[in-house]
Amino acid sequence: FQPICLILTKCQCSFWAMSVIVGPNAPKIRLKTQSLVTVKLGESAKLSCQATGEPAPRIMWISPRKDVIAVSSDKFQIMDGGMLVVKKVTLADEGKYACVARNSAGDDIKNMKVEAEPQEPFINGMKGKSTTKALGVSYQTALLDCRVEGKPEPRVWWVTPYGHSLTTPYLGGRFQVHRNGSLELRGVRKTDEGRYTCLAKNHLGEASLLVELEVASLAEKPSFAVPNIEILPIKQDGGELTLECLARGKPNPEFSWVLPNGTMLAPGVRLQRFIHHRSNGTLQISQPVATDKGVYRCLAKNVAGQAEKRYALEAGRKPMIRGSTGIIVVLVRIRV
């Protein structure tokens, strides 16, 4: 800035002007004494890092594995003010994190340690006792998921329908228990059906997961009776447009829809004017408009594989089915 000095006397008026240039200042991180953050497993940890300096310093975070943390990911989020958010903390997220504030004049570092609080075990996000079902296919591999969290690290083991205990890790015959607690059964047979129990225990408590395994003797990949691409017109008459997803397979497939913008609709979900019916897998569009044009994808999936059917909605075009043998003109069902 340029301060101006003005002196007035009876005889003269004098001016002095001078310029003051402020040089760069190295970053300085506030509250460097805050070095430990404790958090419950499954919750988010927030690590503060506020710094001053000229020019304004850039904030960078280093993980316990010495990796530079990206601004946004499934595990981390760096906020505008420099705060680091560690999402859904697990035991693997514990350790020392370093905040580095840097500008042209230098840098400053703040180390913070993240620790999970002692906690009783929980399995697949559930405490206490829980149950689930799993479906396997004859002569294929079945994986029974048992993701265990707790501190101190719990002891994990499986009990088979025949009363055999399989510790973690375990490898014997067709059975393998991975270090993450999951049980893998290779070459599944009908005789493998039954109740499998995953148990986790530390000095604070225990948790259990009962998995009822059913083995299908035969599986068929989903398929559609009609060609997999249909081109349909959009009629802006205030009615409803229904897109069917009729697929067969063993076991019966589960359906999901993907809208033109990439949004996925699970069964029973409603999004504005779009409804995915749980009972038959159809997609209903209320009061369709020209902006609804695009490709709609129905995904049918079971343990044997996945199939896809696509509808291309276009404004002012006659309905068609496009297959491998040619083009057939059909009518679309419009409900009013």
UniProtKB/TrEMBL annotation:
Protein name per the record: Ig-like domain-containing protein
Primary localization class, coarse: membrane
Signal peptide limits: none
Location(s), subcellular: Membrane
InterPro entries in alphabetical order: Ig-like_dom (IPR007110), Ig-like_dom_sf (IPR036179), Ig-like_fold (IPR013783), Ig_I-set (IPR013098), Ig_sub (IPR003599), Ig_sub2 (IPR003598), Neural/epithelial_adhesion (IPR051170)
Domain Ig-like, first and last residues per copy: 27-115, 121-216, 227-314
PROSITE patterns for the chain: IG_LIKE
GO cellular component, one term: neuron projection
SUPFAM superfamilies, per database record: Immunoglobulin
Keyword entries, A-Z: Disulfide bond, Immunoglobulin domain, Leucine-rich repeat, Membrane, Repeat, Signal, Transmembrane, Transmembrane helix
Pfam families (alphabetical): I-set (PF07679), Ig_3 (PF13927)
